[in-house]
Design the sequence.
């Protein structure tokens, strides 16, 4: 176990996460792979304060075509329902468009997670249209509906650019038409929990319409997971223990059946397989040690999930996953 996870384990007032799971089946995946999340690299045009994968412009880890091909083979063989492409800024991977193109040929639900700001850069200006042509679902992160809060987390001017890009996506039909899905992600800017998802969605929709006349389908609220840059922030600010205590006190067993790790895998840039993106950030590969290359041509088997104390981030209150609340 790495030092960051050791630190979470050694917090004396927090019981081990695994002890909280009383029903054995929730320590295991289901027997079907429904979602493959492909993390195409840690390279990003931004370097947000809360980034759990510690992405940024100086990162050099980028997935190559061979790993992508193996991912696609597994997705096809397992007939996955969703291919979820993320990063970093996935658009910056040189094989990104090829991957989207191929993914759309074998799967009817392809998601791309974008920070929006990247779409304003000259090299990527054609991508909104490319997304619409492929009818990929866009999940965009908009940390808040006001400039001040978002710019503090993402950098000066990021909010204004993101709004401009959402307007462009709306003009293409995103957020309006059923087959051009535009979803948003909210995560808190500090050591506190997100509000109830349905209430926050209502607030986002009304503020963004009033102030900018922009629309979107759904808002996903995500609890900040105590890994990566966010864990470092918690330590620096002296909030690690109290944040973990809050998460542990808010443990909700009803969120366990919907944990995203139960029906998905997350593939790293080098082909290593993880139970989820948070485990990838925490450098905790699947307990079987498999890479995506090992999974090609094999039937999918139920496996034990690699759980540790950062998992409290997924089970607090209404629960949290890459698709928002889980309860
Ligand atoms: S949070 Fe997203 S946009 Fe920000 S640095 Fe991380 S990957 Fe990039
Ligand atoms: S952090 Fe990952 S492995 Fe842990 S509960 Fe959440 S989704 Fe599952």
Sequence:
């Amino acid at each position: 176990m790495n030092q960051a996870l050791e630190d979470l384990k050694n917090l004396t007032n927090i019981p081990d996460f695994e002890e909280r799971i009383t029903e054995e089946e929730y320590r295991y995946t289901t027997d079907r792979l429904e979602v493959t999340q492909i993390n195409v690299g840690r390279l990003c045009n931004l370097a947000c304060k809360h980034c759990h994968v510690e992405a940024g412009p100086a990162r050099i880890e980028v997935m190559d075509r061979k790993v992508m091909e193996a991912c696609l083979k597994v997705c096809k063989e397992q007939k996955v329902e969703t291919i979820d492409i993320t990063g970093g800024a996935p658009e910056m991977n040189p094989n990104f468009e090829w991957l989207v193109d191929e993914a759309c040929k074998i799967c009817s639900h392809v998601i791309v997670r974008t920070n929006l700001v990247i779409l304003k850069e000259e090299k990527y200006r054609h991508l909104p249209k490319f997304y619409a042509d492929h009818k990929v679902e866009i999940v965009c992160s908009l940390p808040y509906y006001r400039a001040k809060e978002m710019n503090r987390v993402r950098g000066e001017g990021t909010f204004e650019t993101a709004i401009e890009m959402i307007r462009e996506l709306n003009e293409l039909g995103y957020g309006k038409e059923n087959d051009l899905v535009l979803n948003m992600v909210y995560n808190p800017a500090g050591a506190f929990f997100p509000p109830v998802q349905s209430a926050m969605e209502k607030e986002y929709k009304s503020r963004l319409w009033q102030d900018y006349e922009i629309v979107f389908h759904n808002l996903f609220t995500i609890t900040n997971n105590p890994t990566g840059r966010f864990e470092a922030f918690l330590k620096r600010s002296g909030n690690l223990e109290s944040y973990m205590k809050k998460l542990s006190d808010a443990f909700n067993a009803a969120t366990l059946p919907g944990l995203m790790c139960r029906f998905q895998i997350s593939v790293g840039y080098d082909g290593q397989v993880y139970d989820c993106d948070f485990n990838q950030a925490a450098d905790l590969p699947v307990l079987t040690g498999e890479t995506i290359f090992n999974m090609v041509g094999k039937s999918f088997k139920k496996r034990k999930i690699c759980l540790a104390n950062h998992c409290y981030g997924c089970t607090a209150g209404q629960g949290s996953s890459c698709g928002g609340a889980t309860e």
In short: The chain has a mean pLDDT of 93. The two ends are 29 Å apart (CA to CA). The longest strand covers residues 35-39. The pocket of iron/sulfur cluster (ligand 1) is lined by residues 44, 46-48, 51, 53, 55-56, 87-89, 115, 141 (CB under 6 Å).
